[in-house]
Amino acid sequence: MYSWHKAQWDNVMQRKGALPHAILLRGRTGIGKYDFAVSLSHGLLCRHPVESQKACGECASCQWLKEGVHPDFKLITPEDESSDSTKKKTSKKKQISVAQIRQLYDYLSLSTHQVQGHRIILISPAETLNIASANALLKMLEEPPANTLFLLVASQAQRLLPTIISRCQVLDLPIPPHAEAVVWLREQGVDKPETALEYTGGAPLEALRTQDQFASNQQLVQQLTLGQNLDPFVSAPLFMALGMERAIEVIQKWTFDLISYQLLQDSHYHSQQVHALQALCKSVNLGVLLRFQRNLTDAKKAANHPLSNEMQLENILLQYTHVFNG
């Protein structure tokens, strides 16, 4: 649990004895939602909680949690079904399956290990539930087992079934104040924390996670500052070296700022390149730019498809050069 979520932590712990059967932890990617959920689970299951109801880290319950064998804690993630090391892993599993949720029926039929204790089901990221698994979960939420808390973590809560959201108590977790996030990142050894934080939209954990990628991201941005003079066939290998999904993310952020600067004279991710944005906006065709942004959204959805190769990236960059009037 991070300092910027203390108010939300205190809010939950003040109601420790009367918690709802399901809580949806909602917020931006990279702010610590999952860590909050794990800390909350540990705090609720700890036999001897310390200051602010945090887990002691020493009792038998805490030791079981550290070893991943606590009988009253179940973690459901998209990776569960791809954990067999004997199978060749061709791609990361993207969805929580209905089989994973149905396995909870047998688990929930057992009594809790601790008398008057909680049983906690942590589902993260909840938006990776597919239609079948979401409906299976909905049935459980409609008739929740006693002494069981479902914790759902979501960065894209709009992808959840409205009926699931309606059966959860929503807890919004905010991004930290800018100054606090900068101090935290500096303590973690992040170089240029202000710029890194800006590029991740104020999400400090995302800035920390991607710090090694930041320099290469900026090299790609320098290519995009060339506007209509960018050579798609020269630039595409540079983008492709970082992977299709990440390359598209870089282009999306730059495009967002082009639109933002064209309409509002403001940038969200690239304040260090404001002069380049100003210069490019003089020749931007806004209609073409908006269509290009929509095309990027479609391309991002197919980023991990086998056909999303260098040729497609060349086409995207060629479209980018057509955003500008000659």
What is the compact description of this entry?
This protein has 326 residues and is an alpha/beta fold. The chain has helices spanning 6-14, 33-45, 60-67, 98-109, 131-142, 162-166, 178-187, 193-199, 204-209, 214-224, 232-240, 244-264, 274-281, 286-301, 310-321, and strands at 22-26, 73-76, 119-123, 148-154, 169-172.
Short key terms for the protein model shown above:
alpha/beta, five-stranded parallel beta sheet, 5 strands, 15 helices, 326 residues, elongated, 8% strand
Helix content: 40-55%
Which sheet architecture does the biggest sheet show? Answer: 5 strands, parallel
Radius of gyration: 23 Å
Estimate the global geometry from the Cα principal axes. Answer: elongated
Strand-residue proportion: 5-15%
Q: Give the strand tally.
A: 5
N- and C-termini, Cα separation: 52 Å
Largest sheet strand order: 2-3-4-1-5
What is the number of helical segments per DSSP (H or I, 4+ residues)? Answer: 15
Instruction: Kindly name the structural category.
Output: alpha/beta
**Which parts are unreliable, with pLDDT below 50 for 5 consecutive residues or more?**
80-91
What average pLDDT do the residues reach?
90
Order of helices and strands: HEHHEHEHEHEHHHHHHHHH
Structure write-up:
It is a single chain. The protein has 326 residues and is α/β, with parallel strands linked by helices. α12 packs across α13. It has 15 helices and five strands. The termini are far apart. The protein is elongated, with a radius of gyration of 23 Å.
